[in-house]
Design a protein that fits this description.
By secondary structure, the protein is an all-alpha fold. The protein has helices at about 5-20, 25-65, 75, 85-95, 95-105, 110-125, 125-135, 140-155, 160-165, 175-185, 205-220, 225-230, 245-260, 265-280, 285-300, 315-320. The longest helix has about 40 residues, at about 25-65.
Length: about 325
């Protein structure tokens, strides 16, 4: 399920704590890493449930209006398009989602006010009114309104971000990429049969799980050697002013460059430059790019970069010069 970029981020976070703390047993660090990925996977299901709870709140509002002492014609004849949304019905009835939520219960009722605020934000949006007042709404329209609920309401809600941070330290940076995964999942729904919706596993395959653990353990094992190597290429810099995270990102990149035959050099460079842009200082990405650009020829000369497998065209110096 999680992309390699997300897995790199999770590994980076655990390694930053590991090297900044008491350097406990590496297998404790691995346990923390897997737990972090598991918590993100839980959040995926909990956020799926949020759209169901918002629809339930809308239905509750309708039923309350019907029970008024003097209900209006509109109260008795409400527009039920949203509460009958076919995408939410698919999510509600999906066996994988139901099983997970049974095993790991989470109820947004602990913050019912948040559900209410999101519903009110939703109904105030022009795209909601357009959806509710259209002559007809098919599966595509149902899909679009739920995707907009996630991208325009849930993802942008600062109160939700704060709530998630309070619930788990592992959810601090998860909201954006979890929402993107949910939107992508919804886009795969082709009919109204819940059984046809395949929920992706936590790791897309065994290779991704191995990659994550391997990156963690080899970065720890090669820490001293790679730190010395980096210091040799940063002699013109004030080492004390180099951000600790920048050094860690370069150490992780070195492990991928020298130890992971299936990961292209350009992929590694691009990934760690992007991580530096997002997580480190304003100038970190350019600094890391420059140091790695100097390190790669050195590593090639020593025969330490050997890439194999499909899609590796241009991964050797001879190919690059062609």
């Amino acid at each position: 399920m999680f992309s390699r970029r997300v897995l790199r981020i999770k590994t980076m976070q655990v390694l930053y704590g590991y090297f900044g703390g008491s350097n406990e047993n590496p297998f404790k660090a691995e346990k923390d890493l897997i737990f972090s990925v598991q918590k993100s996977y839980q959040l995926f299901f909990y956020l799926l449930k949020m759209s169901i709870d918002i629809v339930d709140y809308a239905e509750q509002k309708i039923e309350t209006a019907k029970s008024k002492m003097l209900p209006t014609h509109l109260d008795l004849n409400p527009n039920t398009r949203f509460i009958e949304n076919k995408i939410v019905i698919v999510l509600r009835n999906n066996s994988t989602i139901k099983t997970f939520l049974n095993n790991y219960p989470f109820d947004w009722d602990i913050n019912q006010e948040l559900i209410k605020k999101m519903y009110n934000q939703l109904i105030d949006n022009p795209f909601y009114n357009e959806y509710m007042n259209a002559d007809s709404a098919g599966l595509g329209d149902d899909k679009k309104i739920i995707q907009k609920l996630y991208t325009d309401i849930i993802a942008e809600n600062e109160e939700l971000s704060q709530f998630l941070e309070e619930q788990s330290i592992y959810w601090n940076d998860d909201l954006e990429f979890i929402i993107s995964m949910i939107v992508k999942l919804i886009s795969t729904i082709r009919d109204e049969e819940a059984s046809h919706l395949k929920i992706p596993p936590m790791f897309a395959n065994k290779e991704d799980e191995f990659f994550t653990k391997d990156l963690l353990h080899k970065t720890i094992a090669q820490h001293e050697d790679n730190e010395k190597l980096i210091s040799n290429f940063t002699k013109n810099w004030d080492v004390e002013r180099i951000a600790q995270l920048d050094v860690l990102l370069m150490e992780m990149a070195l492990v991928e460059l020298t130890e992971m035959e299936e990961v292209p050099v350009k992929v590694t460079l691009n990934e760690y430059i992007e991580l530096a842009r997002y997580y480190s200082t304003e100038k970190s990405w350019a600094f890391i790019n420059g140091i790695l650009d100097n390190l790669i020829p050195h590593l090639r000369k020593e025969g330490r970069i050997n890439k194999k497998g499909k899609g590796m065209l241009g991964e050797t110096p001879e190919q690059e010069n062609n």
